[in-house]
Structure to design on (423 residues):
């Protein structure tokens, strides 16, 4: 930044802050330490900026792809492409679904994502009667990841770009008489650089349930085939609708994807999300939210959201309208446990749930007051035993200087900084 000419920084160059938190803090640091003025510093909270960022990012991804100069793909001409995984892969995914656990269809789990927050309460009720969104488990994650890896190269060749997932959902449709909005012809209204892959885990047909779409010639096409058939399409340019069928349960793996600058990690290829989460608000967006575990429900820190103990039970609920179980996994770059005693009271399951929200490479700060008793020390021992956490520092002064917004040095506390490493 200091190497840029003063006139250039003042008139031509722009900085975009790719964060949903700490906007003012980052802006102030840039202004105070460079020739940039605040008017040359943009953030990603405006809809126009978000739309342009997706277009620019996708163009860069296409240019970076080594095969982008090869002949135009079928997908580029028609905006859809049909292929398949094996029937055995489909069966393995279905077998891994735990029918006991569903996602709630809830608007409160969509922060950081483009989502259908205007869905009516009647539509939600109809959807609940007609569709179940199955929660992930380790076996299901492994099977879905295998399927996505098996089609990665094929899909890349159609998109002329590397790609990553924005959301993964396992949906099961029953024979309820209640229709949902997706069963009439529609466009999804996403950014045009967002795509969907629908994997039909049960054989698609008009009898068993399928998808119909309108091709460039204006003809209605119906997806039919064996279990494992999949449809890649631009769901905001191709008019389409779901067909429920008249027998049995239809099982669908719905994967929303975007282009990527390089081949993705497993974490970027497998993002299970809540039902109303469609895709990240911006492709440049990092998970810059901080998460604080606190005893104080009313204490808010800029750039952070706060979880606090409820008064009636040993469970955690987020300050405001969120709850722990609704937070997306591997999302937060920083989690601060303000009082280790709180998590010890809440139990091992709550600790595991909190750690699941920490992104790979993310920082965990745990603090406890020595006089708070042996249980807090036991929790610190427990944290050190977690294989995915690597101890970085216990130097209070150093950690406080690194994270000044947390005000760690205000009481006689022990503080530990740990980093989550990918196994």
């Amino acid at each position: 930044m200091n190497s840029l000419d003063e006139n250039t920084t003042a008139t031509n160059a722009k900085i975009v802050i790719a964060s949903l938190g700490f906007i003012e803090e980052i802006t102030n640091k840039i202004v105070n330490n460079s020739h940039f003025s605040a008017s040359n510093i943009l953030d990603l909270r405006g809809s126009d900026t978000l739309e342009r960022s997706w277009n620019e990012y996708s163009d860069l991804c296409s240019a970076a792809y080594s095969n982008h100069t090869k002949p135009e793909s079928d997908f580029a001409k028609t905006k859809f492409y049909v292929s398949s995984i094996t029937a055995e892969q489909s069966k393995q995914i279905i077998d891994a679904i735990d029918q006991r656990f569903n996602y709630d269809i809830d608007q409160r789990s969509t922060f950081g994502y483009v989502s259908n927050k205007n869905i009516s309460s009647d539509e939600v009720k109809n959807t609940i009667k007609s569709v179940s969104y199955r929660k992930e488990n380790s076996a299901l994650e492994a099977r879905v990841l295998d399927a996505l890896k098996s089609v990665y190269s094929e899909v890349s060749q159609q998109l002329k770009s590397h790609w990553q997932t924005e959301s993964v959902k396992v949906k099961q449709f029953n024979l309820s008489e209640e229709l949902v909005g997706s069963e009439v012809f529609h466009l999804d209204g996403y950014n045009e650089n967002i795509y969907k892959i629908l994997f039909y885990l049960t054989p698609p047909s008009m009898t068993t349930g399928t998808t119909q779409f309108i091709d460039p010639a204006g003809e209605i096409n119906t997806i039919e085939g064996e279990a494992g058939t999949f449809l890649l399409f631009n769901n905001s340019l191709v008019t389409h609708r779901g067909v429920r069928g008249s027998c049995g349960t239809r099982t669908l793996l719905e994967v929303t994807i975007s282009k990527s600058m390089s081949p993705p990690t497993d974490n970027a290829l497998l993002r299970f999300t809540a039902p109303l989460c469609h895709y990240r608000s911006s492709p440049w967006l990092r998970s810059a939210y901080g998460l604080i575990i606190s005893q104080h429900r009313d204490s808010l820190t800029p750039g952070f959201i706060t979880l606090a103990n409820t008064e009636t039970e040993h469970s955690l609920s987020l300050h405001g309208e969120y709850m722990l179980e609704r937070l997306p996994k591997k999302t937060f770059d920083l989690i601060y446990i303000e009082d280790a005693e709180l998590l010890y009271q809440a139990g091992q399951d709550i600790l595991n749930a909190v750690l699941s929200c920490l992104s790979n490479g993310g920082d965990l700060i745990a603090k406890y007051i020595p006089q708070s008793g042996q249980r807090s020390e036991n929790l610190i021992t427990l944290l050190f035993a977690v294989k995915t956490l690597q101890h970085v520092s216990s130097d209070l002064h150093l950690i406080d200087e690194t994270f000044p917004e947390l005000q760690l040095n205000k009481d006689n506390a022990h503080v530990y900084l740990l980093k989550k490493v990918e196994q």
Observations:
- The first strand starts at residue 15 and ends at 17.
- DSSP finds twelve helices and 20 strands in the chain.
